[in-house]
Amino acid sequence: MIRPGKMIQQVLSSIFKKPATTRYPYVKASMPGHFRGKIKFNPEKCIGCMMCMRDCPSKAITIKKVGDKKFEAEFDLGRCIYCAQCVDSCLKKALEYTNEFELASLDRKKLKVTFHAEPDKGPETKA
Amino acid sequence: MHKVIIPIGPQHPALKEPESFRVVLSGEKILEFGYRLGYNHRGIEKACEARTYIQNIYLTERICGICSHSHSSCFIQAVEEIAGLQVPRRALYIRTIVAELERIHSHLLWLGVAGHEIGFDTLFMYSWRDREVVMDLLAVITGNRVNYGINTVGGVRRDVTPEQAKEILKGMDILEDRTKYYAEIATQETTVIKRLSGVGILSHDDAIRLGAVGPTARASDVRRDTRKDDPYAAYGELDFKVITDTHNDVYGRTIVRVGELMESYKMIRQLLKNLPDGPITVKAPRRIPAGEAIGRYEAPRGEDVHYVKANGTDKPERVKVRAPTLANIQAVSKMLENRLLADLPIIIAAIDPCFSCTDRLTAIKDVEGGAQGTMEWEDLHTYSIRWYRDRGIEFGAANKKLSAMMEGKK
Amino acid sequence: MAHLALSLFYILVFPGLLFLSVFGLAAEYVDRKLYARMQNRMGPPWFQPLADLLKLFGKEDVVPEESNPQIFRLMPVIALTAAVSAFFYIPLWDKNALFAFNGDLIVVLYLLTIPTLTFFLGGWYSTSLYAKIGSVRSVTQLFAYEIPLFMSILSTALLANTWSLSEMTAFYGKNPVYIPVNIVSFFIALIALLGKLEKVPFDIPEAETEIVAGTFTEYSGRLLGFFRLAIDIEAVVGASLLAAVYLPFGLSLPPAFGFLFYVVKVLFMIGLLALLRSVFARLRIDQMVNFCWRYLAPVAFLQLLVTLAVKGVFLR
């Protein structure tokens, strides 16, 4: 059976429907709970095994020893591919993923995120 | 009649990726067709040798943006075979669920692209709108819309919860409804049929002779499907049909893909119903013992093959990828015989080409001499120095000058 | 002197170039918005066509070295002028067109053919391969849709027994009973108009996925802007022509209402065109020519016979 203009019904009814487009920058988009976004680092849990550094496919994470049993992590958000393998590799669960995904920046320096090891102040982000 | 050669690509609106096709036309008729691969070569196989197996999962996943799960699963199957790992059944089921969701997303994407290539943008917009449903489902299960990262050596990284299973089933109902509608469009809308039927004929014998795979082969009535021929993951326990068609043309390929969509919905329902309990991963060694294996996998576009050779370290010695497009692209010249220029975009699109999957080698051709060969890094280096020297640019001198300047600054 | 000033005002401002440009852009907006909504998309904001045009006008013109620069530069302007001049002979919201004489119907139809010819010449002389293929296709297509279009409009003219558009609308205004006689030719003319405006399913000359932008591949900046404006205006003029010939209602309303009614009629035509282009796939050139000669032209011919019969029986 051949019918020219088969879609005409749906096309006409679409005029009166709300567009499927999401108005993204104006209306915030939400990501599902398990979304692999920006990685968070908890310095107090880190034991400095460097497994995350070894497994990172893009060498985006660097763990530095800054004192006795104190470690800080530096992430390069420009390199990170958000696979969250480091979260899986971490034996002490010092790394976790967040829902944050709007990470683009015009400034290259802002893509470097350092989590300092200051136990009383907690994790802190510094550009 | 006057002959003209027109270039389709490397940059052309019909192509979503850079690849070069040269078409010799007489009027609108295609006389000759030639293609050159190599514009997307990224050296992934070589890069695999410098990375650990865990890192390679994410690298192979990025061979292709659409069938990312296919490539990583194919790779991991080969690795697991070498290591002799017994992957838990639940992990295999979850892998299969993601694989079928990926097939749904890929086929819906193809439907939209095909619509766009024949100038039917409404179909394109509708099918991509509905594809969002499956993309969101993939994000819920795996944590991202593309590059799912669900695989790991010896299992999967994430479990499917009962709530997620419910959500998937809901999504399948919506998509099944829509797919039935698209099947009606493809088989009833006059202009679509006019553009698709009789276009890009690939006979049954030619499909076998040229080694076509996937929906391209199945539309020529070649019953070739790795899921049935060599069942992997959970496919051996599933009840599904291999969709074939006897039209041999683009119309047949559309029918096969729409039919496969319906089969995928059926499969996902079965998988979720029979999802076994148990662990989702088995402990895998970091060093894979020496050995070699071939992974076979039915990607949405056809059979994907990965060859992995391990040497006892944590890095593979050799990885070789044969993407389905490489098998299918040979058939394109045959399909284009005696066709018109207007059919070219849809014929190329009908094999659902993925050029970045295909490009595993860059061959440099001497344009004047016509000689062809490969160039090593050293050859390329000396060639580039000579090329610039011929044009009056001396790199040695420039380098010296530059370093002198840098020294001066310090 | 006053007469000349008035004529200039008519030609350049209202209802001439300026009004037509604004109306053309508005019609493009309606077309794009409707097309988008039919595809369940948002569509552009109201100023998008104007913004596109201003952006093009602000850019440099690139003239290919191999092309014939005079013809390359001249064609967009000719296309624009031809489309605008056709507008003056069509009765819009008044019974009479701005300028009318016996035979203006033919003039309008030929003026509407000129833009297609400029596409051909502009594309051909820009020497790009894509543009050449596109321009050959646009002329091939011209031969296919032009005959049905002429025949269908001719049948209405036959019934009214005049070659003047103004007299035709006057006739149908007086005898609205005869309007339904031409209903088939209305649809033929609408389909042919799709071909004239090079829209899906007849956008073969600029089929994006095959030959990039066809005729307009080498055009950029102001010249492309003129072409786009010419196409917008051609759409309005074509829609006005169809409205004047097939929907000659409300011409004796007071000017303000008549004007509003005219705008509604034209936008209705634009909406119909948008609907048609959203439900079809692009045909191939051979299929298009086949369709026009095998179905459209014979049906138009039948319409002609029916009209003649009606004329012979009722309008002796």
Q: Major sheet of chain B: size, sense and barrel closure?
A: 3 strands, antiparallel
Q: Show unreliable segments of chain B.
A: none
Radius of gyration of chain B: 24 Å
C-alpha end-to-end distance of chain B? 68 Å
**Total domains of chain C, how many?**
1
Shape of chain C: globular
**What does the main sheet of chain C amount to?**
none
Kindly estimate the percentage of residues of chain C that lie in beta strands according to DSSP. under 5%
What overall geometry of chain B do the principal axes of the alpha carbons give? globular
CATH-defined topology of the largest domain in chain B: Cytochrome-c3 Hydrogenase, chain B
* CATH-scheme architecture of the largest domain in chain B: Orthogonal Bundle
Overview of the structural elements:
The complex is a heterotrimer of chains A (127), B (410) and C (316). Chain A has 127 residues and is of the alpha+beta class. Chain A has helices at 8-15, 51-55, 85-89; strands at 39-41, 61-67, 70-76, 95-97, 112-115, 125-126. Chain A has a single domain, classed as Alpha-Beta Plaits (2-Layer Sandwich). Chain A has a 4-stranded antiparallel β-sheet with strand order 2-3-5-6, with no helix packed on it. In chain A, strands 1-4 form a two-stranded antiparallel sheet. Chain A is elongated and about 75 Å long. With 410 residues, chain B is α+β, with helices and mostly antiparallel strands. Chain B has 3 domains: 3-38, no CATH class; 44-358, Cytochrome-c3 Hydrogenase, chain B; 375-409, no CATH class. In chain B, 51% of the residues lie in helices and 13% in strands. Chain B has 16 helices and 10 strands. Chain B has a 3-stranded antiparallel β-sheet with strand order 1-2-3, with no helix packed on it. In chain B, helix 4 runs antiparallel to helix 5 and helix 6 (162-188) packs antiparallel against helix 11 (250-273). Chain C is built from 12 helices and no strands. Chain C has helices at 2-12, 17-38, 48-57, 69-87, 104-125, 129-160, 165-174, 183-196, 208-211, 221-246, 255-279, 285-314. In chain C, 50% of the residues are buried. At the A-B interface, helix 3 of A face helix 2, helix 5, helix 6 and helix 7 of B.
